[in-house]
Design a protein that fits this description.
Blueprint: H1 7-27, H2 32-42, H3 46-56, H4 98-119, H5 123-142, E1 169-170, H6 177-187, H7 190-197, H8 212-233, E2 238-239, H9 242-250, H10 261-283, H11 292-297, E3 299-307, E4 310-318, E5 320-324, H12 331-339, E6 340-342, E7 357-364, E8 368-374, E9 376-379, E10 384-387, E11 397-399, H13 408-436, H14 447-459, E12 464-465, H15 505-515, E13 532-533, H16 543-579, E14 591-603, E15 606-615, E16 620-625, E17 628-631, H17 634-641, E18 648-657, H18 684-733, H19 743-746, H20 763-781, H21 787-807, H22 821-827, H23 832-843, H24 852-867, H25 875-903, H26 907-925, H27 935-959, H28 962-984, H29 990-1004, H30 1013-1027, H31 1047-1063
Parallel strand pairs: 1-2, 5-8
Antiparallel strand pairs: 3-4, 3-7, 6-7, 8-18, 9-10, 11-14, 12-13, 14-15, 14-18, 15-16, 16-17
Helix pairs in contact: 1-2, 1-3, 2-3, 3-4, 5-9, 8-9, 8-10, 8-18, 13-16, 14-16, 20-21, 21-22, 21-24, 23-24, 25-26, 25-31, 26-27, 27-28, 27-29, 28-30
Length: about 1050
């Protein structure tokens, strides 16, 4: 059987598989043979097939509620099989009445069949259309949103500009991450990319019958070519796939539903196959047409088996090969199980058994081998699909030799050997378990330890004491007072008591007996044995008995340990033998290299998709997450794809034939031999298309630059006007000076605002007082010195004071960096010239005291400033250091206000302050460890604030009241969700990752609960935003405006907050 000879038969097989999927979804039955039997009995009538299975199986399990509500709002990606009920009408499948069940299924199928008769479109195609239409609707609705969301485009086109040679991302146009993951995986197959880019529509397209498929496929191919060309040559960081999505949406009648992305991939390849088939038939008139899509993605296997005692062999085609995940630990175990169905012992026996079963053997593997991992199973009790989070390992290089038909006999021999080894392994493991879990009761221990404990017991020496000595009698129950007992007679000492203390034990025992006090005994009839050992020990054992017992126990323990080691070594050898069973060269001739892994995070009803794709040119893994394309690693892929960790796992694996390099080989110019890249890879029509789009983008950047230049000019004019008005006002109120104006007094000083203020209050007053104290101390030491000498001495005095503050080992509540910029500079080893100029600026402040000594020193300081040459102090570096200090103060204010609000439980208001405190602090710490505050502290309260808001929003949602639900979702959409990428961007912060998972799991847990349809609709609309794993911040809230604090006020208030954190109390608010 070949594709060229019988395309109709191929589609018939696909239709049969679709019916099987529908039947499996409706009934929950997973037995393939039973499903096929039902279809045969019913002659393909799905209603009769369901009736057959319903009669055959037990009653449907009842639920607590009579009705299970199932809404069908679109989220990022859905796992509802083709043909499942997907509209918002409620169908009760929980009762015992089979007639109700039959009518519900019949009604659903009647609607589906009527739609197919009218439009020629299958349920499978309609389901895909529903996803696409909802995605477009979501994209249009997003344009009407008033609040900023993290996936919106940045208004600055330069932030959307593609970096050189970086891959292009795909914009999520509304729950289309599944589309991005699939398209990027296919696009990075260079052979597939070439086929799409160089596809040309049939020349006789006008003469072709414009049936539904052609009306859909040919425009879609053209749009896909445009999309691929932009991915090749666009200057944008990411491109918009709405054109392709629109074409797909318009091809179908639609209603709301959810769609399994694996089914979408399957149908996408079908559409491409149909489009290439039209072209192939035109190019090869009279010949057997070859379809490149079929040759690239489809293979064949031989089904060999026995059905009711009769042997059979059938050759079948396959595209995506489905594999069950539940119950298996790695990909080979999945494949082994998938290749054998039913009981196959009869396949190799000569007897005509009535058993049924079959084996699959690949006769031809496709160049691109795709495995569809089934991580969803239908829960019949709950009436919905559930995700399987089990761990499943898969290799980067997969050898398929053991599954090939040409190796059938060798593989059967090896499988039999593995089966025998596993049986032996089971026996050894059971024997080992008896050694490691010894005993007959509920508690069991390793036998070697049991023998060791017995030996320790036998070797113990008893220490004589009465059990009442261990009882605290200082406060007897019932309020009675402890009294000393009468002296005990010598006759009361037990003869069997063996003292471990030697000859002095008699006196010590007598002293202890005198110290004993009476014990409150509520039951006078209860008697405690007069003397017991302090720890378990033999009462009577001779030296001979002990020697024999120790000898036996030592020997037995040694024997047990040797037996345990031997069993463990044997088990390890068997494991190693099984692992190496297929490692000989003859079974490593069909290598397939992992090309792409498509990952899903979330639950069955909601989640997010992204892809890991191997870049062969740069020998590294890349992560394609919508618009974000980042470098990755095998370790990150393993963590996100194997499953068992968080809620992320692979659902599709794409392997490529390692012996066919053309699949991922770059294209070269035939004349020059140079590798083609960028626009050179495109045919002429697509080259023109991409160049036009690039010109539009360049024009957008030019318009943005012009707009920013105009804004900057306007700001400069406004500042100049404000400065002129301030100068005029200053001249109007300032009295006429009798002294001539010197250059020292008129020279402009562009220095930080915390170094010089216009009024003697706030920072200036605090700084002025410090400066005057330094001058007074210098003058007290040298009364007759010149102003210049006094300035030098005062600067040394002030610097010594600041250096002492910087060298103190102080707690966070006394952070002297907030008191003076030079303390900050000393901590961070600022250049000496920067420190000197800053200190000189302090003494050049015009607001110093009005006595002659201060004035003269201020004039000398200003004169020294004027004499500093540009090459002596790098003013750019000087401004940079002071800018860092300004940012440090702002960060401190953000943190201060955020912590105060957090302690008042004003989490909504506190969040933005803590967010910006962390971001600013992180930038500071990147330049040095002493430029910011404790990063873990800020991260902790940022994380706690988000968790508190999530908890509050979830509690509002649980009330079910419309107003409260909307408020809760608004908190999540406006505050929590935009902040999650900030926690995910640094994946080394494990606590942040766990917090994000906790928040997501809280909301995903609602998927398993019954709720009103409007709540379900809101939840399914919200979850994709919460589960979006993109770590790129597209846009964000503006930072809150900060109040102005003086240096002393900031220092004291910051200290109060830090002290409160240490003592666990809320700081007093106040200035």
């Amino acid at each position: 059987m070949t594709v060229e000879q019988n395309v109709l038969q191929q589609h018939s097989q696909k239709h049969q598989q679709t019916l099987l999927n529908q039947l499996r979804e409706v009934t929950g039955t997973t037995d393939v043979q039973l499903l096929q039997q039902a279809l045969q009995v019913s002659n393909g009538d799905l209603v009769e097939a369901v009736a057959f299975l319903t009669e055959k199986n037990a009653k449907v399990p009842q639920q607590d509620e009579a009705t299970y509500y199932q809404t069908a709002q679109i989220t990022n990606d859905r796992y509802i099989s083709v043909g499942s009920q997907a509209d918002t009408n409620v169908i009760d499948l929980t009762g015992d009445d089979k007639d109700d069940l039959q009518r519900a299924i019949a009604l659903s199928l009647e609607e589906s069949n009527r739609a197919f008769r009218e439009t020629g479109i299958t349920d499978e195609e309609q389901a895909i259309s529903r996803v696409l239409e909802a995605s477009i609707a979501e994209n249009k609705a997003s344009l009407k949103r008033t609040h900023t969301e993290v996936w919106s485009d940045s208004p600055n086109p330069h932030e959307r500009k593609r970096m050189e040679n970086c891959p292009v991302g795909l914009k999520n146009v509304g729950n289309t991450c599944w589309f991005s993951a699939v398209i990027q995986s296919l696009f990075n197959l260079l052979e597939f990319q070439r086929l799409v880019l160089h596809y040309s529509p049939p020349a006789r397209m006008q003469d072709l019958p414009r049936n539904q498929k052609e009306h859909r496929n040919l425009p879609f191919m053209q749009e896909l070519r445009h999309l691929f060309s932009l991915l090749v040559g666009s200057k944008r960081k990411y491109v918009d796939p709405s054109g392709a999505v629109e074409i797909l949406k318009d091809a179908f009648k639609s209603s709301e539903s959810q769609q399994d992305v694996s089914e979408f991939t399957h149908k996408l390849l079908d559409w491409l196959e149909d489009a290439f088939q039209i072209k192939a038939e035109e190019d090869r008139e009279g010949e057997k047409p070859k379809n490149p899509m079929v040759e690239l993605f489809y293979g064949r296997f031989l089904a060999v088996g026995v059905l009711e005692g009769k042997k059979f062999e059938n050759t079948e085609m396959f595209g995506q090969y489905p594999l069950q995940v539940n119950g298996f630990k790695d990909l080979h175990e999945c494949l082994e199980a998938a290749m054998i169905e039913g009981e196959i012992e009869s396949l190799h026996s000569a007897e005509n058994s009535a058993k049924s079963g079959q084996e699959h053997w690949f006769t031809e593997l496709p160049p691109v081998l795709t495995f569809e991992l089934s991580r969803f199973e239908f829960n019949q009790a709950l009436g919905r699909p559930e995700k399987i989070h089990n761990k499943l390992e898969f290799p980067s290089m997969l050898y398929m030799d053991r599954y090939m038909d040409r190796n059938r006999e060798i593989t059967r021999i090896k499988r039999e050997e593995i089966r025998r080894l596993k049986e032996h392994l089971t026996v050894l493991q059971q024997r080992l378990e008896r050694y490691l879990s010894y005993g007959s009761g509920p508690k069991r221990f390793p036998l070697a330890d049991v023998l060791q404990y017995a030996m320790e017991f036998a070797s113990s020496k008893p220490v004589c004491t009465s059990p009442v000595e261990d009882i605290d009698t200082t406060a007897p129950p019932g309020g009675t007072i402890a009294q000393l007992p009468p002296p005990a007679s010598a006759g009361e000492q037990p003869d069997a008591c063996v003292s471990a203390e030697g000859s002095g034990s008699g006196l010590q025992a007598s002293q202890q007996q005198q110290q004993r006090v009476s014990i409150h005994k509520p039951f006078t009839q209860s008697r405690v044995p007069p003397d017991l050992p302090m720890h378990p020990a033999p009462r009577h054992i001779t030296e001979e008995e002990l020697r024999v017992l120790e000898s036996c126990l030592h020997r037995w323990r040694s024997e047990v340990e040797n037996d345990t080691r031997d069993l463990q070594a044997s088990i390890s050898r068997i494991h190693r033998t099984i692992e190496l069973m297929y490692s000989d060269k003859s079974m490593m001739q069909v290598p397939y290299r992992l090309h792409a892994v498509l990952v899903h995070e979330g639950q069955a009803n909601a989640g997010h998709y992204w892809a890991y794709i191997y870049d062969r040119h740069h020998q590294r893994w890349m992560k394609y997450n919508d618009i974000a394309v980042t470098k990755s690693s095998w370790e990150e892929l393993v963590r996100d794809s194997f499953g068992g960790y968080r809620n992320a796992s692979a659902y599709c694996l794409m392997y490529i034939d390692d012996k066919k390099p053309f699949l991922i080989q770059e294209e070269f110019d035939k004349e020059t031999g140079q590798m083609l890249s960028g626009l050179d890879k495109l045919p002429p029509d697509l080259k023109v298309f991409v160049e036009a789009d690039n010109k539009l983008f360049e024009r957008e950047m030019e318009e943005w630059d012009a707009l920013q230049a105009r804004k900057l000019q306007q700001e400069k004019l406004a500042l100049a006007a404000a400065a002129a008005a301030a100068a005029a006002a200053s001249v109007a109120v300032q009295p006429m000076s009798t002294e001539p104006c010197s250059p020292d007094n008129t020279a402009p000083q562009h220095d930080p605002e915390y170094m010089e203020q216009q009024s003697p209050s706030g920072d200036s007053k605090h700084l002025q007082e410090d400066t005057e104290r330094a001058i007074s101390k210098a003058a007290a030491e040298h009364d007759e010195k010149s102003p210049e000498a006094l300035l030098n001495t005062a600067m040394k005095v002030e610097y010594t004071r600041l250096l002492r503050l910087a060298q103190e080992d102080t707690p966070p509540e006394r952070d002297y960096r907030l008191q003076h910029v030079i303390v900050f500079f000393i901590h961070n080893e600022a250049p000496k010239k920067i420190v000197e100029r800053t200190l000189l600026m302090q003494f050049a402040d015009r607001n110093l005291g009005f006595d002659e000594r201060c004035k003269s020193i201020m004039k000398v300081a200003r004169a020294k400033l004027e004499l500093i040459k540009p090459d002596e102090v790098n003013m750019e570096e000087y401004e940079m250091w002071h800018q860092d200090y300004r940012i440090f103060r702002e960060t401190s204010v953000f943190l201060l206000i955020g912590l105060e609000l957090f302690m008042k439980k004003s989490f909504v208001e506190a969040l933005m302050y803590l967010i910006y405190a962390y971001q600013y602090n992180k930038e500071l710490l990147a330049k040095g460890p002493y430029r910011g505050h404790d990063e873990e502290l800020i991260a902790h309260y940022r994380r706690e604030c988000l968790l508190k808001l999530n908890e509050y929003a979830a509690a509002l949602f649980e009330t079910g009241e419309e107003a409260k639900v909307n408020t809760g979702l608004s908190i999540m959409n406006d505050l929590v969700v935009p902040c999650l990428p900030l926690l995910l961007v640094d994946e080394m912060e494990e606590k942040d990752m766990v917090a994000v998972e906790d928040m997501r799991n809280r909301w995903c847990s609602y998927l398993g609960q019954e709720m009103e349809p409007n709540l379900q609709e809101k939840l399914t609309d919200f979850l994709p935003k919460l589960l979006d794993c993109s770590t790129e911040i597209k846009s964000f809230h503006e930072p809150p405006k900060l109040p102005s604090y003086s240096t002393l006020e900031l220092f004291e208030r910051f200290g109060r907050v830090m002290t409160s954190l240490t003592m666990g109390r809320t700081p007093a608010d106040g200035r």
